[in-house]
Design brief:
Jelly Rolls; about 300 residues; 2 domains; 20 strands; 5 helices; Cyclophilin; 7-stranded mixed beta barrel
Length: about 300
């Protein structure tokens, strides 16, 4: 018997992701991967999968999926409003961070994220997905990864592996970080910017604009004055780099970032604060705090401990 979800509504930006596709930036292929690693790991832990198993990532509005085949243990992580619709059309409010059994003919309606951007859907045993260069992650701009490198589409079928009848229901408590301070280290071209702009960057608020996606987060706030050069020779860049183009408004590069760039970089978000950053919705205000390598390393150790706790 084939087990699958029929897509009755694909959602705004629904893709399959895992921890990413590494070692290919020299070929122009970004790592991609899940935006919020904490929620991604937690979704898999809730259903008893390996924490790196591919899951369905959605943004803002998620998909409406009807299960066909065997019952399955599933879970949704994130600040998410979702419903479970049974065969009689009765609607039950779903509970994030708590796995549950979905039966054939029942539907899962992921209505929206709440004051956040990303959420995850996992299923025990995993989805049937083929790896490209060691990862199932979908990089839509390059048409690489699961689902032919595309977002979910209406009436497609998402196949999943046979589920265990002895699956264990799990639930976890997860506290979303509402703090708006993002810790950063100095970027390679930090000294390109005037002392005043350096001070403004760490003292003024910046607003997340609507021009934000998996590739980058455009900010709006105090214009940063470049004293040396608004362009540099293109060089390799990483997730979390904060570029400043000619208009003086920062852009934070995210998981689907380009592999090289020619804008000066004033700072780089530390790994421990990345999950918190990507969940900030347009209109949110951010403040940046300068930190050094020792603090970043200590924060990273705490972050890894949290991930391993799930």
């Amino acid at each position: 018997m084939k087990n699958y979800f029929k897509i009755l509504r694909p959602g705004i930006n629904s893709t399959f992701q895992d921890t990413g596709r590494f070692g290919l930036q020299h070929l122009g292929i970004a790592p991609s991967g899940c935006m919020d690693k904490s929620l991604f790991f937690l979704a898999n832990k809730l259903v008893g999968n390996e924490i790196s198993e591919g899951a369905l990532e959605f943004a803002y509005q998620g998909p409406l999926l009807e299960l066909v085949g065997e019952s399955a243990l599933v879970a949704v992580s994130g600040k998410v409003n979702f419903n479970i619709i049974n065969n009689n059309g009765e609607i039950k409010q779903g509970i994030p961070y708590e796995s549950f059994i979905l039966s054939s003919g029942e539907s899962l309606d992921i209505l929206s994220t709440i004051d956040s951007v990303y959420g995850y859907l996992s299923i025990f045993g995993g989805f049937k997905l083929e790896k490209t260069k060691g990862s199932i992650s979908t990089l839509v701009r390059a048409k690489i990864g699961s689902n032919n490198g595309e977002k979910l589409r209406l009436d497609e079928k998402i196949f999943f592996n046979k589920s265990s009848q002895n699956s264990k229901i799990n639930k976890f408590k997860f506290d979303f970080e509402n703090d708006t301070t993002i810790r950063v280290m100095k970027g390679l071209q930090y000294d390109y910017f005037s002392k005043k702009s350096q001070g403004d960057f760490f003292s003024k608020e910046y607003e997340v604009t609507k021009l934000t996606d998996r590739m980058g987060m455009r900010l709006e706030g105090k214009k940063l004055e470049n004293m040396k050069s608004k362009n540099i020779k293109s060089e390799g860049i990483t997730k979390g780099s904060i570029q400043v183009p000619g208009d003086g408004q920062p852009i934070i590069l995210l998981s689907d970032h380009p592999t090289i760039g020619g804008y000066p970089k004033i700072a780089n978000v530390i790994t421990a604060d990345y999950d918190k950053l990507v969940q900030k919705t347009p209109g949110s205000k951010l403040k940046f705090k300068l930190t050094d390598l020792s603090v970043a390393e200590s924060a990273f150790k705490d972050y890894i401990k949290k991930l391993n706790f799930f």
